[in-house]
Write a structure and sequence with these properties.
The chain is mainly alpha-helical. The protein has a domain of 81 residues. It has four helices and five strands; from the N terminus they run ααβββββαα. The strands form two sheets. A three-stranded antiparallel sheet has the order 1-4-5, with helices on one face. A two-stranded antiparallel sheet has the order 2-3. A hairpin with a 2-residue loop joins β2 and β3. α1 crosses α2 and α3 runs antiparallel to α4.
Length: 235
């Protein structure tokens, strides 16, 4: 009997506690669902943050890529512009320097022509100098021969004196056989004479010139190597 009472009491207690247990289970279930929803919301927020971060990264990457593309295009255009300007500047510079280059080329041609002419003139001048040297040597040789001939005797010196006298008279404007006569014989108180030149003067007068003289002293003076020796030859 006691056992039955205990069972009945237990059943009654269970029946009485059933609503509380059911409410507790319901609350527990609601708490679990709320917690699950909270976790779902947390995961969704996390996913949203991840997506936002990924979107930000993608946006930054796209912006960087776009900036790199724009920079590359700008650099390409700048390079093309610089190349075009460089070509234009080169063309302008060539156009400006072309007259200068042509002038320099003409000047170079003139310099070459002048150098060629100078070389030819120098060659001609050298040839003339050589000819003058040859003529000078020949003149010196002839002068030595003349000096030797004049030193050999009075006859040679006399003929040279006569020719020199004739040259002097002709240089003075006198004419042979009109103004003067050469080697004419004349009778004088001292005998028959034949002067080198007889100059006719106005009024029928005559002027007699004899050109005979010694040239040894004169030639020695010409060959002297110092003034003292030369002065001594004239004494």
């Amino acid at each position: 009997m006691n056992l039955d009472f205990f069972l009945v009491a237990l059943i009654a207690a269970l029946v009485a506690a059933a609503p509380a247990i059911a409410w507790a289970l319901m609350e527990r279930s609601r708490a679990n669902r709320a917690e699950a929803r909270a976790w779902d919301l947390h995961d969704a927020a996390a996913r949203v943050r991840v997506m936002e971060e990924q979107s930000a990264k993608n946006s930054a990457f796209l912006q960087a890529e776009a900036a790199a593309t724009i920079a590359e295009q700008v650099m390409k255009r700048a390079d093309e512009t610089f190349h075009n300007r460089e070509q234009l500047a080169q063309a302008r510079l060539e156009a400006q320097l072309k007259p200068v280059a042509e002038s320099l080329a003409k000047f170079q041609e003139q310099v070459v022509a002048v150098e060629k002419t100078r070389a030819e003139e120098t060659g001609g001048l050298k040839e003339q100098i050589n000819q003058l040297l040859t003529a000078s040597i020949a003149t010196q040789s002839e002068a030595r021969k003349l000096s030797a001939a004049l030193r050999r005797g009075a006859g040679v010196q006399g003929r040279w004196g006569e020719q020199t006298l004739r040259n002097v008279l002709e240089a003075a404007g006198l004419h042979n056989r009109y103004d003067f006569d050469e080697q004419t014989s004349t009778d004088t108180e001292e005998g028959r004479r034949r002067p080198d030149v007889t100059v006719r003067l106005p009024g029928g007068a005559v002027f007699v010139i004899d050109a005979k003289c010694s040239l040894n002293a004169f030639l020695d003076a010409q060959d002297a190597v110092d003034d003292a020796t030369r002065e001594a030859c004239y004494v």
